[in-house]
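Why Ycf36? Reviewers of the renewal asked for a concrete example.
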Amino acid sequence: MPFHNNICPVPFDQQPLNEYKALKKSPLFEFSTMEFPKFITRLLVIFFIIVGFGISVSFLSANTNKISLNIVSYNILFSLLSLEAMLIRLYLGWSYVLKRLSSASVFYEESGWYDGQLWIKNVDMLTQDRLVGIYQVQPLLIRIQRLLIIISILSILLMLSLLLIY
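Here is what the prediction returned.
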């Protein structure tokens, strides 16, 4: 956006709107912007790939001809924890961008950590950034937060059941 470059002294890659666009295009964060059914489908595919890989590694490394319920349970638990880690990463990335979009001032570095500057957004840029934050980023954060709570509860329940059974 040349409009931002003429008014804003912040380097192009450090402008909040451009950080949002770059994050939206990155492979990990891109699928979190899809519609909810597609997002859930991708998460389920990742979950089943991790479970399948874990069970196959357990089967190949074990000296038995069968897979026990214990091995499957621990692989499911590992897969849930992997999804939690991925969702935490998504949440942290989007919350950082939301904070930068919502803030009235932008901290930026011109050439390194030693020469940081603070720039106050003009009204038009602040309005545009806050609208993007409210209508584009905040719904993603709410969705990721809810999924993180659900997966955390499932992980805790599975851990408790494993402790009680075994």
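The first helix runs from residue 2 to 7. This is the kind of structural detail the renewal will allow us to pursue systematically.
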